[in-house]
Amino acid sequence: MSANIISIAQVQQRYSGSYEFTVTEEPDLDFRKYLARKLRDVLPPVTLAHPADAISLDISLDDLEGDVVAGISAVTYRGTLYIDMLWVDEPMRETGIGRRLVQMVEEQARQRDCRRARISVTGSAVAFFVGAGYS
Fold first, then answer.
1. Per-residue DSSP letter, 3
2. pLDDT in tens, 40-61
3. For 16-123, where are the alpha helices, taking DSSP H only?
4. How many helices, marked H, and strands, marked E, lie in the chain?
C-alpha cells in the first residue's frame, strides 16, 4: 500500500477498537488490484481509465495485523466523485462497514468540492447503492 497516507485525526478513525480506516490520495495500483481480485467472483473484471489529473481517493479498513478487510476505491475529477470498487470481506458484511466507507468517501469528495457522484456497479451492488440513496 502507498506510504503517502493522510493521517489527519478526522480522517483516520477507529472502528470497534480493533480496526483502523486509512485514507490515501496517492494512486495505489496494488490496492486497486487487491480489490479487483476480491471482487472477481462477484463482478466481471473492471478496467477503468480516468483522466491523468483525476485525484485518487482510496479508503481501506485494516485489522490489527494490517490486512485489508474492506475497502473502497474512487477518484474525484472536475467536481464529480467516481466510485469504482467497494468490497467488504464476507464475515464483515451486514455490519454497516460498506455504508460507512461510502459515507467517508462522500465526505472526502465534498471537501474536494464535489457536488455529484457516479458509480459503476452491477448485480447485487446495485441494490446496495440504491439503499444508500443512489439512483
1. S
2. 876 665 556 788 899 999 999 9
3. 29-39, 97-111
4. 3, 7
